[in-house]
């Protein structure tokens, strides 16, 4: 790809269909994790262009530096790893809310790594790119190839992928003012760790594109720790589970967003409207998507 070109990338968010945390940690201090994720069609639009110096700009601007630093660090590490000296400007138009368990900073960093790998003539799943993704953050590797996947290790080692699961309607709901700190949630988990259940039944359902089977096996053993820290996120989670037309629901990641797998698009849209209008919660009706966030 010519380095003078402009790239526009769609960075989807994710939900965890299964998140199983173990008490044991690796040398980096990351917990051992079984994580089954699917990409969702709520995403950021990322524009990458050649520049005199590397920069990362968010629109709207971020309050804190952490998310910017993840993307900037990813660019610097990949440039160093591949021996590339091109500087780029990166503009990220934000739609994914921070602190929701939707993978916001990981989506940005992983999608930029994927785009830069292609720009610099390297397969996004090249071991060097994957190695950089793992150094930047636990979920970043998923966004190098955002398809339904099981990741182990610290949630950064791809175990297997599943057939595309496109067009499944979801409702995302998140109460205001309770964005989760992933670090704090894991610290709370460590106070009373629970051995996770197996993800085998869920993986079997995904292999068959069995949406009902997958819905029957949603799981997240990090959610109780998140709820102890932010009990208010339990309100939309419980509310979602009671809505007609919901196949299953749970908190994603370390919170604070909950999602519902819905029987139809109209159900997801109705739930999102009610969440916003009746409760004042942030809410979106979305779909699971294919690679690059495109419904295909």
Would you give an account of this structure?
The chain has 296 residues and is of the alpha+beta class. It has 2 domains: 7-161, 2-Layer Sandwich (Ribosomal Protein S5, domain 2), CATH 3.30.230.10; 169-293, Alpha-Beta Plaits (2-Layer Sandwich), CATH 3.30.70.890. It has 9 helices and 11 strands. The chain has helices at residues 66-82, 104-119, 127-136, 182-191, 200-207, 211-215, 223-229, 234-241, 265-279; strands at 7-25, 31-50, 55-59, 88-93, 149-152, 157-161, 169-174, 219-220, 246-251, 258-262, 282-287. The strands form 2 sheets. Strands 1, 2, 3, 4, 5, 6 and 8 form a 7-stranded mixed sheet that branches. Strands 9-10-7-11 form a 4-stranded antiparallel sheet. β3 (55-59), α1 (66-82) and β4 (88-93) form a beta-alpha-beta unit. α1 packs parallel to α2, α1 (66-82) runs antiparallel to α3 (127-136) and α4 crosses α7 (223-229). The longest helix has 17 residues, at 66-82. It is globular, with a radius of gyration of 18 Å. The mean pLDDT is 94.
In brief:
By secondary structure, the protein is of the alpha+beta class. It contains 9 helices and 11 strands. Strand 9 and strand 10 form a beta hairpin.
Task: Describe the protein's topology.
Elements: E1 7-25, E2 31-50, E3 55-59, H1 66-82, E4 88-93, H2 104-119, H3 127-136, E5 149-152, E6 157-161, E7 169-174, H4 182-191, H5 200-207, H6 211-215, E8 219-220, H7 223-229, H8 234-241, E9 246-251, E10 258-262, H9 265-279, E11 282-287
Parallel strand pairs: 1-8, 3-4
Antiparallel strand pairs: 1-2, 2-4, 2-5, 5-6, 7-10, 7-11, 9-10
Keywords: ATP-binding, Isoprene biosynthesis, Kinase, Nucleotide-binding, Transferase
Pathway: Isoprenoid biosynthesis; isopentenyl diphosphate biosynthesis via DXP pathway; isopentenyl diphosphate from 1-deoxy-D-xylulose 5-phosphate: step 3/6
Catalytic activity: 4-CDP-2-C-methyl-D-erythritol + ATP = 4-CDP-2-C-methyl-D-erythritol 2-phosphate + ADP + H(+)
């Amino acid at each position: 790809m010519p380095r003078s070109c402009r790239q526009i990338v769609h960075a989807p968010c994710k939900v965890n269909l299964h998140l199983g945390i173990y008490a044991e940690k690796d040398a980096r201090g990351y917990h051992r994790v079984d994580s089954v994720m699917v990409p969702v069609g709520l995403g950021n639009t990322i524009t990458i262009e050649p520049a005199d110096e590397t920069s990362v700009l968010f629109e709207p601007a971020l309050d804190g530096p952490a998310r910017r630093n993840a993307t900037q660090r990813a660019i610097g590490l990949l440039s160093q790893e591949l021996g590339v000296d091109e500087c780029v400007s990166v503009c990220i138009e934000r739609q994914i809310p921070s602190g929701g368990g939707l993978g916001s900073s990981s989506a940005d960093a992983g999608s930029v790594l994927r785009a830069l790998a292609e720009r610099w003539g390297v397969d996004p799943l090249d071991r060097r790119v994957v190695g950089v993704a793992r150094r930047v953050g636990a979920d970043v590797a998923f966004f190098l190839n955002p398809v339904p996947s099981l990741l182990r290790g610290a949630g950064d080692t791809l175990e297997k992928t599943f057939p595309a699961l496109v067009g499944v309607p979801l409702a995302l709901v998140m109460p205001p003012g309770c964005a989760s700190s992933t670090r704090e949630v894991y610290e709370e988990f460590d106070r009373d760790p629970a051995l996770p259940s197996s993800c085998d039944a869920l993986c079997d359902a995904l292999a068959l594109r069995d949406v009902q089977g997958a819905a029957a096996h949603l799981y997240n053993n990090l959610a109780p720790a998140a709820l102890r820290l932010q009990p208010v996120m339990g309100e939309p989670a419980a509310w979602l589970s009671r809505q007609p037309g919901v196949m299953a629901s749970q908190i994603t990641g370390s919170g604070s967003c909950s999602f519902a797998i819905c029987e139809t698009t109209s159900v997801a849209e109705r739930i999102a409207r009610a969440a916003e209008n009746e409760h004042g919660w942030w809410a979106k009706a979305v779909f699971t998507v294919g690679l690059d966030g495109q419904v295909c």
